[in-house]
Amino acid sequence: MTEEEKPSNFIRDFIDEELAAGKHSQIVTRFPPEPNGYLHIGHAFAIGVSYGIAQDYKGKFHLRFDDTNPEKEDTEYVDAIKEDLRWLGADWGENLFFASDYFEQLFDWAKGMINEGKAYVDDLTPDEMREYRGTLTEPGKNSPYRDRAPEENLELFEKMAAGEFDEGAKVLRAKIDMAHPNMNMRDPVLYRILKAEHHRTGDKWKIYPSYDFTHGQSDAIEGITHSLCSLEFEYHRPLYNWFIENLPVPHTPRQIEFARLNVEYIITSKRKLLQLVNDNHVDGWDDPRMPTIAGLRRRGYTPEALKEFCERAGVAKRERVNEYALLEYCLRQDLEGKATRRMAVLDPLKVVIENFPEETEWYEGPNHPADEARGKRKVPLTKEIYIERDDFMEDPPRKFFRLGPGREVRLRYACYITCTDVIKDDEGNIVELRATFDPESRGGSTPDGRKVKGTIHWVSATENVEIEARHYEQLFTKTNPNEVEEGQTFIDNLNPDSKNVLKVYGEPELANATAGEPFQFERKGYYILDTESEDGKLVFNRSVGLRDSWGKKQQKK
RNA sequence: AGCCUGAUGGUGUAAUGGUAGCACAACUGGUUUUGGUCCAGUCAGUCGGGGUUCGAAUCCCUGUCGGGCUGCCA
Where is the short sequence motif 'HIGH' region located (predicted)? Predict the structure, then answer.
């Protein structure tokens, strides 16, 4: 690790101190997803923090599924999460674990706590428990069942485990302090009765440990040195430590919290993402508008761009919201070097080059302007072509460098054309342009060395491939989708125009596009073949548009 | 209200008692067969008040503002 590459942060500083004090022989971190949804960009950040630290300190990285709530969890999610993790480049090697692997051990520890008088079976209903817990300002009061004898507790707990009670009838609680200022310490629930089918243990268990009773102990069992999690668990840390201190665990992990990653226009609540999918506001978890890893991948984001974004966002202790522009910058930055260049016309305007021969002429364009090794492709030019509608103006302002009546521009990679006539329909709409080309300009320059201000992209009107291009806007209209008027929900902030489908003409070479290969449609944006493409039907997703300082300038006027 | 926690340009993040730096955004200009990329530059910041100190973004006190916490979710 070098300082230049990895800026330090408070977690790394802390680890450095511990290492200097000889506290660890090896750093071990973990990523603990609950398999109840798909991974999203916020998870990519969390993974980057834990995996990055494990890598940089030459330590180990565990993947542990936190599967203590069978009602919400499923193997479908386990598989999807693994795939996303691999794609992101996080390698857990042999270290794949499940919290459910520790159910037996956790059960033994619970019984141990009962024997020591540190846990008891409570018959209070959920409502009663809430009442007894007190409030933020007032202490709670002891449950009438709090002082049951260990023998009775043990018997009851065994019966709970044997399925002799209904769901919700009883819970096992730690006996800590009902007046504790930290609500988490007011006799937290250790086990609850749940008769759902667990994705790994089936119907073996009728009771399941709570997150608090599972997480730290799992860390301890695995020898995790630094259990990195988000800020919301700060308040749970005293409890995390309490279990580590009160149970005969083999190791003492340390929980350190950091702020989640938030991005403008993006929601990262699993519950809300699930709602978008279930209510068909989007086309599934991998909809290119979704902030899920699957969605971003389909949209054309690369692991490198995501990683760069996470690193630039940094690790902090306060809630923050990153600008969407940074995310786009990171993608463009990565794609600029990777994307194969092609030409496609998104909003066609036909141009007839009147003095152009009837035969097709073939020109060559580099696959990448800065990398000759990537070769060239041939592009056919014919008498009739399409250009971009906004590359022509009948009455252009002074700073407009593109085509206009009497103006000359360069067709990229090909030749110069001059607009000679504008053809309109009855309503005055421009439907076609007439032009002439300079035979001397073949190749893109002329012997007289005259300059043309503009170079525009084009596609033959007769030798092209028709493709469907999908353009996406923000899924939400507000930078903070959760900001709503009284009585509304985030659903009301959905952008009705977040998906636009265009019929586009592309140069013939585009027919050979392969899945996962990034393209730049020159002067327009970065695109990638969509998973819905089939033989004869090419569908491209726009990953992100090119920066457009001209368009931006125009919008301001 | 109680407890926990935080506050540096528009945004994000460094500086750990010694010149407030970097990136994105915005804006200029240069290069360019992409109004892209690249290059150069400009704009702009320590929440308020007190204190300690030769010296404070940093330490102390205090105020203000923000986030989190009252699931048998994680």
Answer: 33-43
Indicate if CB(A362) is under 7 A from strand B: no
CATH of the domain at A366: 2.40.240.10
Active site residue A34: yes
| CA dist., res. A273 & res. A83, Å (int) | 19
Nucleic chain B: which protein residues 6-65 of A have CB below 7 A from it?
Answer: 7-10, 13, 32, 34
Q: Is A237 left (phi over 0), alpha (psi -120 to 50) or beta?
A: alpha
A160 touches strand B (CB under 7 A): no
Is pLDDT of A4 > 50? no
Strand partners, A471: A500
DSSP string spanning A90-118? Answer: ---TT-EEEGGGGHHHHHHHHHHHHHTTS
Query: A42 is in which domain, residue-wise?
Result: 3-258
Q: What is the pLDDT of residue A485?
A: 84
CA pair distance A459, A437, nearest whole angstrom: 15
Q: What is the pLDDT of residues A526-546, one digit of tens each?
A: 999 999 999 889 999 999 999
Cβ of residue A413 lies below 7 Å from strand B? yes
* A69 strand B contact, CB < 7 Å: yes
Half-sphere exposure in the Cβ direction for A65 (13 Å, CA): 29
In this structure, the answer to whether residues A127 and A64 fall within a common structural domain is yes
A279 touches A250 (CB < 8 A): no
If asked whether residues A183 and A121 sit together in one domain, one would say: yes
Work out the pLDDT band at A278, boundaries 50, 70, 90.
Answer: very high
Residue A236 pLDDT greater than 50, yes or no: yes
Among A260, A317, A442, A523, the one annotated catalytic: A260
Assess if residue A265 is contained within a domain. no
Q: pLDDT for A288-339, tens place per residue?
A: 999 999 999 999 999 999 999 999 999 999 999 999 999 999 999 999 999 9
Q: What band does A6 get if pLDDT is binned at 50, 70 and 90?
A: low
The set of strand B positions with any atom below 7 Å of a protein CB reads: 1-8, 10-16, 23-27, 33-38, 66-74
Write down which residue in A428, A457, A486 finishes a domain. Answer: A457
Residues A309 and A356 in one domain: no
Q: Rounded distance, CA A205 to CA A424, Å?
A: 76
Q: How far is the CA of A38 from the C1' of B20 (A)?
A: 41
Amino acid letter for position A169: A
Nearest nt (C1') to A12 (CA)? Answer: B16
Q: What is the mean pLDDT of residues A509-521?
A: 97
Q: What pLDDT score was predicted for residue A7?
A: 66
Is the CB of residue A315 inside 7 Å of nucleic acid strand B?
Answer: yes
The count of other CB atoms within 10 Å of the CB of residue A551 is 11
Q: Has A432 been annotated as catalytic?
A: no
pLDDT for res A8: 81
